[in-house]
Amino acid sequence: MGRHPGAPATTATGSATATATATATATGTPTASASAASDQTYTLDQVKQHNTRADCWAAIDDGVYNLTDWIAQHPGGAERIIGICGTDATAAFTNQHSGEQRPETQLTRFYIGKLG
Ligand code: HEM
User: Fold this and answer.
1) Please, are residues 85 and 58 in contact by the beta-carbon 8 Å criterion?
2) Residue 38's closest CA among 87, 104, 108, 105?
3) What is the DSSP letter of 66?
4) pTM over cut 0.70
5) Which of 115, 44, 56 is nearest to 82 (CA)?
6) Number of H helices, E strands in the chain
7) Which residues line ligand 1 (CB under 6 A)?
8) What's the pLDDT at 19?
9) 80 CA distance to ligand 1 centroid (A)?
């Protein structure tokens, strides 16, 4: 079995002096926990994977939006949202809603990240 090659019996003479040494940064770490989700970046190929009414993403301008929960609520009808699932819907959204306050405000609620 193993023998201890050189078990140094040199266990320092008492005094474990290295006590309070690395006890510095315990507090005050201002981590940016809140911004993590929206820092995500997705490619258009990723958006294209989410192309059904049960899983509906769309890219609009530089943003990516998860519209799944909005399909049934859209005042302009579910079909119009379903029609843009998995696509770059910049033109569709802009043509229909450009300059309209409510659609643009609604849209921000579904933001999940940047198009990159
Ligand atoms: C993609 C995200 C979209 C969002 C967040 C959105 C949001 C909205 C909102 C909030 C309204 C109500 C506006 C108001 O009452 O002031 C609305 C109405 C409407 N939307 Fe959208 N929309 C989206 C996409 C689209 C698209 C792609 C189309 C067409 C291709 C469309 C067609 C319409 C129409 C026709 C109405 C009017 C419904 C009516 O007044 O009877 N929407 N939308």
Assistant:
1) yes
2) 108
3) E
4) yes
5) 56
6) 4, 6
7) 58, 67, 70, 74-76, 80-81, 84, 89, 92-93, 96-97, 102-103, 106-107
8) 42
9) 8
Sign of the four-CA dihedral 90, 92, 97, 103 = negative
Residues near 36 by beta carbon (within 8 Å), at least 6 away in sequence: none
Nearest to 44 by CA among 90, 106, 95: 90
Residue ranges of domains in the chain, CATH in brackets: 38-115 (3.10.120.10)
* 101-109 vs 90-97: helix crossing angle, rounded to 10: 140
Query: Which pLDDT does position 22 carry in this prediction?
Result: 44
- 10-residue mean pLDDT profile of the chain (116 residues): values are 49 45 44 57 98 98 98 98 98 97 97 97
